[in-house]
Amino acid sequence: MTTGNNTKNYETPNHPFQGERIAEESGLLGRYGLKNKEELWREQSELRRMRREARRLIGDAQGDIDVAAEEGAGFLSRLRRYGILGENDEINEVLSLDVTDLLERRLQTIAYRKGLGSTPKQARQFITHGHVTIDGARATTPARKVEVGEESTVVFDETSPLSDDLHPERAEAQE
């Protein structure tokens, strides 16, 4: 899907004032350290696209999961490579995914879980300031999805002052 400069690649909620939805979104924003609701809506839209593709594949195969998995082999391998689906999960598992499954695969969340930041927001700041590398390459996009194979290579940049274990911001995270 190609998008122009003036095209949004996410959908906003249909009803702007729903207390329950707003509270749920606010909880996710805090838990994953997202900058604003637009980031959450992007992930929700990406999840809708994945579910739509899975439904299309299952529908084209007339409900036969094995045929659908064969047709969507590239789609499924991508989801497995990014750790969104497990190695043994079938195509129908895509329909039961939650937005948190996608949020967990963001660089920001993985950096926080690995202890590179004491909070998700601090991990985000370290990423945007260029202190974090993936497989030796500087990564400055907190929303980037990290493949399972790359997860172990998420570290501080060796030229960053934060790579020193005695850095004051690092000391907080270790306590």
* Radius of gyration of CA atoms, rounded to a whole number: 18 Å
The main sheet orders its strands as: 2-1-3
Mean pLDDT: 91
Strand elements, count: 3
The proportion of residues forming helix, as a percent range, comes to: 40-55%
**Number of helical regions:** 8
The CA-CA distance between the termini, in Å, is 46 Å
Largest sheet: 3 strands, antiparallel
Short description:
The chain is built from eight helices and three strands, in the order αααααααβββα. The protein is mainly alpha-helical and 175 residues long. A hairpin with a 2-residue loop joins β1 and β2.
Describe it.
It contains 8 helices and 3 strands, in the order H-H-H-H-H-H-H-E-E-E-H. It has 175 residues and is mostly helical. 23% of the residues are buried. The protein has a 3-stranded antiparallel β-sheet with strand order 2-1-3. Helix 2 (37-60) packs across helix 3 (65-71) and helix 6 (107-113) crosses helix 7 (120-128).
Give the tags.
175 residues, 8 helices
Secondary structure topology:
Layout: H1 19-32, H2 37-60, H3 65-71, H4 73-81, H5 99-103, H6 107-113, H7 120-128, E1 132-134, E2 137-138, E3 154-156, H8 168-174
Antiparallel strand pairs: 1-2, 1-3
Helix pairs in contact: 2-3, 6-7
